Amino acid sequence: MRTPTARRTAERRLHEAGETQDLTFTADGKNVILASGSPYYHQVLRTSDLADAGRYPAAAYPNAVAVAADGAVAAGVDSRYGSDVFMFKPGASLSHGVFEFASGDSSPLLLPAGLGWAPDNRRLFAVTREERQGAPAILRVLTTPGKAATEAVLHIPSTTPSGTRSLTGRLASDLPFPAGTTATVTRLDPGATKPVKLPPTTLAADETFALTDRATTRGYITYTVSFAGDALHLPSSTSIEVYIR
Questions:
Q1: Phi, psi at 124, each rounded to 5°
Q2: Is the terminal CB of the chain with fewer CB neighbours within 10 Å at N or C?
């Protein structure tokens, strides 16, 4: 019986790609997904000619990828401070969920090619390891994706004149915020026990916000910006003390 000879059908040199850590085919076999240290997204190439066929924008330092039988894509990254695995529906440009392995002082990293789906598509396996020397590899069984962490940031000079002033800030997260997302800003005046709630402010396309406030009471006041969270994001808040002279 004659064994068929392998035949090269396409070739491409990816000058923009870093060291490839993992790759896999899509469920229909029409594309291949690469996880390289750079660029900072998972590349999708057509299997027929290796032309660009899309991307899964997870985060910096892609190092693992796995595709379920139903086409779901798990895109893993080597991240010390953010989410580790981003979930995508086939061909989607936005992630619909994340997994983050950090907990307290523990910050395990996803190992290269460390993702794999169970045959039932209901479980995702991830292999991680702490950075400390001699740490063992740990197999994690992941089910429902969690919510992405968020960080609220508020900018205002620590000392500002009485009257009208501008406040700016932003919400930061590994997952983009949906259009219309709002942040709430409050002001606690000197001697007051109940904060004044300012009008809600809507995030701009770059996830920043800006508003003005007028306060004539002199002394130290506290501004707080908070985000209530949504289906994909955890809540967050931060406060700044300002001296009104």
A1: -120, 130
A2: N
Q: Write down the pLDDT at residue 99.
A: 92
Give pLDDT, residue 1: 59
Q: Note the pLDDT of residue 196.
A: 92
- Look at the chain and count its residues: 245
pTM of the model: 0.76
Stronger pLDDT, 208 or 144, i.e. the higher one: 208
Q: How far apart are CA 81 and CA 99, in angstroms?
A: 12
Mean pLDDT of 195-206: 92
pLDDT band at 104 (very low <50, low <70, confident <90, very high): low
Mean pLDDT of 45-63: 93
Q: Compute the Cα dihedral for 115, 118, 124, 128 and give only its sign.
A: negative
